[in-house]
Amino acid sequence: MLARPATAAARLVAALDTPDLARAEGWAAALAPHVGVLKVGLELFTALGPETVRRIGAHGPVFLDLKLHDIPNTVAGAVRSLLPLRPAMLTLHAAGGAPMIAAAREAAEQAGAERPILLAVTVLTSIDAATLASTGVAASPAEQVVRLARLAMAAGADGLVCSPHEVAPIRAALGQAPLLVVPGVRPAGSALGDQARVATPRDAVAAGADWIVLGRPLTQAADPAAAARAIAAELA
Ligand code: C5P
After folding, report:
1. How many other CB atoms sit within 10 Å of the CB of residue 172?
2. Where do the H-state alpha helices sit in 163-210?
3. Do residues 119 and 179 make contact, with C-beta atoms less than 8 angstroms apart?
4. What span, in angstroms and rounded, lies between the C-alpha atoms of 106 and 139?
5. Which atom belonging to ligand 1 lies closest to the Cα atom of 163?
6. Ligand 1 atom closest to 41 (CA)
7. Where does ligand 1 bind, in terms of residues with CB under 6 Å?
8. If you take atom 12 of ligand 1, which residue's CA is the nearest one?
9. Alpha carbons 20 and 101: distance in angstroms, whole number
10. Quick one: which of 102, 117, 106, 103 has its CA closest to 64?
11. Domains of the chain
12. Model confidence over 113-164: pLDDT tens digits?
């Protein structure tokens, strides 16, 4: 399993958000020396499939962000199918429940010491209180995040994906055990894009984030490698 990052650069996860594999490979080649992990999301994976992970994985550790959510048997099968691609991190929805997470963990164990880190997604940051209530959940989003975080960790997840604002409540509830991967960060002074509730990389790490996910601040920079170095320097 990928170790908790020991350097500022190792904390950076570059989100390679594009359906164009050549472009993603260009970013991976430029960024891999300056970041810890390369994130392949649904857009890239569904465009080109497993080959994407092989090609990006040639440059560095891959976070395969597929947010799996299905019956336990199917999720376990998906995890087994993904193991040959040797992803360093995989996501699944905590809302799939403890049996689903436990089945994913059992399947991942087949890779032994090289198994991927299993990260649970709690409440998507796109879901507000009204949307959550409309799904039948009476709790506030903040309460539901902590409830699902507890459930996921007890069922065998190694960590969680959470917003910068959720890091402190999750650390307060669950201590240092969960590996926390945090998107929605923006270097001071950079464009927000569609991210509304953001924190700087420094604040996210100070609150207890292990890894921070950066997409456009790296990929849309004139010099992505220089942008990554600058953020690592800010963290160091
Ligand atoms: O470009 P940007 O830095 O906003 O990209 C953030 C990455 O993190 C994207 O891949 C996005 O899908 C992902 N993400 C997020 N917010 C979440 C979960 C994942 O921005 N709550």
Report:
1. 10
2. 164-174, 201-207
3. yes
4. 30
5. 21
6. 10
7. 15, 17, 41, 125, 161, 163, 183-184, 193, 195, 213-217
8. 41
9. 31
10. 117
11. 10-235 (3.20.20.70)
12. 999 999 999 999 889 999 999 999 999 999 999 999 999 999 999 999 999 9
